[in-house]
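Q: What structure does this chain adopt?
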Amino acid sequence: MQSDNSPRRNSRWSETPVLDRNRKPKAACPTERDIDGIFAPLTRYRYLPADYMHAFAGGSLDYLVNRLNLLSRQPNRYVARPPQQRANAAANHRRLIYELADKGWAVMHERGVMHERSRAPSNFAHELMTCQLLASFELGVRETANRLIAWSDILQSQNLPDATRHSPKPYLIPVTVSIDGAMIATHVAADGAPFGIGRSRGGDTAFFFCPGVEADCGTEPIDTSDFQRSSLFKKFLLYLTVEAQGIHRAHFGFPNLYVPFVTTNATRMSSMMKLLERITRGAGSRTLLFKTFPAFTSPGKPPPPSGHMLTEDWQRVGHPPFNFLKS
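A:
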């Protein structure tokens, strides 16, 4: 029988303080290890599960989990546990997901790291999936000793046209397409920010650029006749136009552009690829890539963090599989 004076374990969802030996709330002073292994990854990726941060930070996973627990509670609150994650039926048994709280951002601001997040994403599962996919690319370059070219690097590149550099939204790719005989001027933008991979092999370096990732949680229609509505049909048509007209060269100064489409299961991926095959009359696309990754809302245990987005093959329509490290 537990006495009234026995310490009780805090709920993983509460902000109840961790108590020290004197039963006083334990205050945390952020260390360089916290900043490098926890705060810094959360400035790059809004949401990350604890095991993803461990993949970046290394060391003891138990230590990291305990440290995150302390940093997320009163009176500390340097990181936060997004409440949306509780919507998953297995939430109590999964790795907790974190984001940087205001106090954590204040620490990073003092170090010159700024952010422009004005409001929370409208879809937690979609944003988390985007973060995990992009983090996998970064883990992949670390595993293979290659180079990740971040959006900040691209914005400073001499190859970026001045018109794009000074645009209020330089990540938007302008596209004009013909729909039912009418010319429609619009734009296309992927999830996350544009990035590049610098692959070193045999003394030579090859560069592969992406507009971000197209993370599909299964909520958008695959095919629709309404071009004004967001759909995979519309995205395929716009990216195919970018590919055919070389718009990525004029807008970003990129020598190439590969668009990773990631959806939640093989059945939906097959439907997406069949749609692309129909649109292109069997020709497919060299630059539209396909892979699966379970979303937060998918059943089953999520896969462990790894660099598989970079190291494993991507499927294509009308072309052999593509690999960032081998193709």
